[in-house]
């Protein structure tokens, strides 16, 4: 690789953390560019030229510009990671995809939104987001009973995609104590070589 990957991020973004974690697990040289989300930098033309959806994360790798966290995980795994992170076998790949969809669906609607409500005081239906979060955690608790990782017997991008918002769900007012299998899975992800944590929000520390 000639030049480092440019990674447009925001420190407290769980979506951006997926990319940060993958870059670190793969030990890929990269340059982090923090985007001023509170200041609206992501809705200005220079950033919209990179991502017309006006969101982080974005990566620029040579002439490849990509947005959307799970799409970026697919790219990094295929280009730099090999079979382990995203298998090519039809069934194994589909099992990974099930959890990328979960990350963009239920995790977005549940753990992401309870955290948005509590930490960032976003006006949204907290009760609905909480219901979705509890349903999701129950589903994961059952799924992880007897499994080490989400989509294979080793870590894949499914685990990378799902980790951050589940690990930080307590910032959204949801306790992880009742979910022993989920907590054991989080610990297994945290033990991976190259693991990097998502920062705890100063608001959460003050609460
Ligand atoms: N589907 C996108 C969602 C990204 C997303 O929601 N990013 C948030 C930060 S966590 C953002 O940039 N929000 C600003 C906005 O939507 O205006 C992904 O997976 O990357």
Describe this structure in words.
- The chain has helices at 14-25, 45-48, 69-81, 90-104, 106-119, 126-143, 157-167, 180-190, 202-206; strands at 5-9, 30-34, 58-61, 64-67.
- With 207 residues, it is α+β, with helices and mostly antiparallel strands.
- Strand 1, helix 1 (14-25) and strand 2 form a beta-alpha-beta unit.
- The radius of gyration is 17 Å and the shape is globular.
- A 4-stranded mixed sheet has the order 2-1-3-4, covered by helices on one side.
- 50% of the residues lie in helices and 9% in strands.
- The model has no long low-confidence stretch (mean pLDDT 96).
- The protein contains 9 helices and 4 strands, in the order E-H-E-H-E-E-H-H-H-H-H-H-H.
- It starts with a strand and ends with a helix.
- It binds glutathione.
- Glutathione (GSH) binds at residues 10, 13-15, 37, 42, 54-57, 68-70, 104.
Beta strands, count:
4
Q: What structural category do the secondary elements indicate?
A: alpha+beta
Sequence of strands across the biggest β-sheet:
2-1-3-4
Biggest sheet layout: 4 strands, mixed
Share of residues in helices: 40-55%
**Regions with pLDDT < 50 over 5+ consecutive residues?**
none
Rounded mean pLDDT is 96
Cα-to-Cα separation, first versus last residue: 43 Å
Radius of gyration from the alpha-carbon trace, in angstroms: 17 Å
Number of helices: 9
Q: Identify the overall geometry.
A: globular
């Amino acid at each position: 690789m000639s030049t480092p990957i440019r990674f447009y991020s925001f420190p407290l973004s769980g979506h951006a953390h997926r990319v940060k974690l993958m870059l670190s697990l793969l030990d890929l040289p990269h340059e982090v560019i923090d985007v001023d989300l509170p200041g609206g930098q992501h809705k200005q033309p220079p950033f919209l030229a990179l991502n017309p959806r006006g969101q982080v994360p974005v990566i620029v790798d040579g002439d490849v510009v990509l947005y959307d966290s799970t799409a970026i995980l697919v790219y990094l795994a295929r280009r730099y990671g090999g079979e382990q992170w995203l298998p090519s076998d039809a069934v194994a790949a589909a099992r990974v995809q099930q959890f990328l969809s979960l990350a963009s669906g239920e995790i977005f609607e549940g753990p992401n939104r309870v955290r948005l409500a509590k930490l960032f005081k976003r006006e949204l239906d907290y009760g609905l987001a909480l219901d979705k979060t509890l349903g999701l955690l129950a589903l994961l608790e059952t799924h992880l009973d007897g499994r080490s990782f989400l989509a294979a017997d080793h870590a894949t991008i499914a685990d990378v995609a799902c980790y951050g918002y589940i690990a930080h769900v307590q910032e959204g007012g949801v306790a992880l104590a009742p979910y022993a299998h989920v907590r054991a899975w989080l610990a297994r992800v945290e033990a991976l070589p190259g693991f990097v944590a998502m920062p705890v929000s100063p608001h959460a520390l003050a609460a």
